[in-house]
Write a structure and sequence with these properties.
The structure is a homodimer of 347-residue chains. The first copy, chain A, is built from 14 helices and 12 strands. Chain A is α/β, with parallel strands linked by helices. The first copy, chain A, has 3 domains: 52 residues, 434 Repressor (Amino-terminal Domain) (Orthogonal Bundle), CATH 1.10.260.40; 137 residues, 3-Layer(aba) Sandwich (Rossmann fold), CATH 3.40.50.2300; 129 residues, Response regulator (Rossmann fold), CATH 3.40.50. Chain A has a 6-stranded parallel beta sheet with strand order 2-1-3-4-5-11, with helices on both faces. Chain A has a 6-stranded mixed beta sheet with strand order 7-6-8-9-10-12, sandwiched between helices. In chain A, helix 6 runs parallel beside helix 14, helix 9 packs parallel to helix 10 and helix 11 crosses helix 12. The radius of gyration of chain A is 25 Å and the shape is elongated. The termini of chain A are far apart. The structure holds a DNA duplex (16 and 16 nucleotides).
DNA sequence: CTGAAAGCGCTAACAG
DNA sequence: CTGTTAGCGCTTTCAG
């Protein structure tokens, strides 16, 4: 019942501790016979190596850190608006870690902090993780990425193309915006409004570019009046929607850079007596709220859990082999079509 | 830039390693002068103790584990229905840990697993946490609680009265149900339906009892036809709502044991041409979905982040002093009144 | 009040 | 293929 250490296993199996270590780590140079004897002792005693001791003795901690923005995360938690980014990230990364005997530690650091570097260093010193997952907007912080690179720590940047500076795992936001616009064009919409995301996030720019390029490509002019700023909050969505719907003629469809602003648009539309999907609405992120709104919103689903899962796998692989091979991986998004988009009603 | 250890600090400050350790741990027997000298060296070098080494040397790991049910958690993640239990738990527990230099590690184990004990032991062996937070339904598993007690590990049971068997941090589900029923009675409703929660959770029983006692206390008879089973899923809510609304006369109000079943009821009502709040609806949990539905649902808010925060504080305190003082702490719920409840329309 | 030495449980490096 | 030894960075114990 008391603590079982590698030594107990070694004694029980009648081998040296190092041999037990070899077996536990799937190292070569152990006969089948000895391996089995050790395994039996491990089973019988219920031995599980101490992560702390492994870290101390070896060069691995079996720990991955996911670094998230403090303000965004806490605001989401507090607001209770149901943004499930964190959940999806945990879903992907934790399960990937578990599968390989790793643990994920989730850390919050304000992206705006003046002493960001110091804070991150403190986390690294305390935890000594085998790799770190950077989420937006941290993943865009090149100074941070480079600092981590100097420590020779494997890094995955989520949501951005890394282009050689660490691993990148992302979806194509530009193509997603194009797809959303094409969907609306196919439904016959000609005047399509766009609500921008917060400029703090690279994805916001990509989404705007996709919106523009889809229009241009299909022979439509870009009307700057149809592009209004937002910052991903509900409040900014209200302002943006009011501006768009006050135009004459108003757009018959709106693409919002995230769900919350789309939900705000739904709200404004209903206040103005406009029916959705006569006013068609598409959003980004596909968070739980868009399935519950009436009507449900057509939305671009980000592969968050998949990205996080790949991120964890890449880091574990890197720490296992001791070799980084930085590259980018693009994961597919999906347009979830729901009741908020419909063929244009001829006025 | 390289790794800074306690030895570097000791050298820089011109003291013994042990003295640095004393300063870092706020131990007595260090003169102000020496303490300040050490602190300066710590600052200058950016020293942060390694958690792994602390665990190895001492008897604390500075790690807390939160044990959650695997199926529930993963199902919620997959469904994308926006249940924010995990988020709220992290919100409370992580921040409480952070404030004291602790880390929270989030672990998933199936409550149904035949080898539950072995799995939990494996987690303890690997992580050697200073305390463990049990969430429902794990928190109800007395065998598990006792096993942990034998290891002399501080345990907090969330969502149940522990009554001396470990710490308990919970809200009064019975009183909450009473309050919900009283709210409906005050609005003039006389026939109030009740949709039960999954019998796997103790809270379900408490909620049913509260429903009954509020009725009895106010002089109403209990009509068993008005009490229908459910298991917290949307699907079970649909079945339950259909049964209730097929009664003659049907109830004019329904209390559902969680949001998802209440949302299902809203769905069924709309299908049957019934208007909410003419049919009034109250739910438990106050997850994000109930704020987005039309109308928003009147709901009992559980103090999840507060409970998790207290849980972490209790464990840290226990591990710091080395003394458990098991007791229960009840935290207040709140009835959030929204558009789904209104005075009874006289038929 | 301060310090020196021992040891936590493991893996790395090296021997056999 | 297997074992021995040293040491990771801390805290504990015990001396001064």
């Amino acid at each position: 019942m008391a603590k079982v250490t590698i030594r107990h296993v070694a004694e029980a199996a009648g081998v040296a501790v190092k041999t037990v270590s070899r077996v536990m780590n799937d190292e070569p140079n152990v006969t089948r016979d000895v391996r089995e004897r050790v395994m039996r002792a491990v089973e019988a005693l219920g031995y599980v190596p101490s992560m702390a001791a492994r870290r101390m003795g070896g060069r691995r901690s079996y720990l991955l850190v996911a670094l998230n923005d403090r303000e965004n995360t806490i605001n989401n938690w507090r607001s209770g608006r149901g943004n499930d980014w964190i959940d999806q990230m945990l879903h992907g990364a934790m399960l990937a870690c578990e599968a390989q005997g790793y643990r994920l530690l989730f850390e919050l650091v304000s992206a705006e902090a003046k002493d960001l570097d110091r804070r991150v260093m403190a986390i690294l010193s305390a935890l000594q993780p085998d790799g770190i997952i950077l989420t937006p907007p941290h993943s865009q912080n090149l100074a941070l990425v480079e600092m981590l690179g100097r420590r020779n720590l494997p890094v995955v940047r989520m949501g951005v193309r890394a282009e050689g500076v660490a691993y990148g795992v992302y979806m194509n936001d530009r193509a997603a915006a194009e797809k959303a616009v094409e969907h609306l064009l196919e439904l016959g919409h000609q005047r399509i409004g766009f609500i921008e995301g917060s400029p703090r996030f690279e994805a916001s720019r990509q989404r705007l570019e996709g919106y523009k390029s889809a229009l241009t490509r299909s022979g439509h002019a870009i009307d700057d009046a149809l592009i209004v700023p937002g910052d991903f909050t509900f409040e900014s969505g209200v302002v943006a929607a009011e501006r768009l719907l006050a135009l004459s003629p108003p757009p018959t469809a709106i693409l919002a850079s995230n769900d919350e602003m789309a939900l705000a648009t739904l709200h404004v539309a209903s206040r103005l007596g406009l029916r959705v999907p006569e006013l068609s609405l598409v959003s980004f992120d596909d968070t739980p709220g868009v399935r519950l709104s009436v009507p449900g919103l057509t939305s671009i689903r980000q592969p968050i859990s998949e990205m996080a899962g790949r991120a964890a796998e890449l880091l574990i692989e890197a720490s296992r082999t001791g070799e980084h091979a930085p590259h980018d991986e693009e994961l597919p998004f999906r347009l979830e079509v729901r009741g908020s988009t419909a063929p244009r009603v001829q006025g």
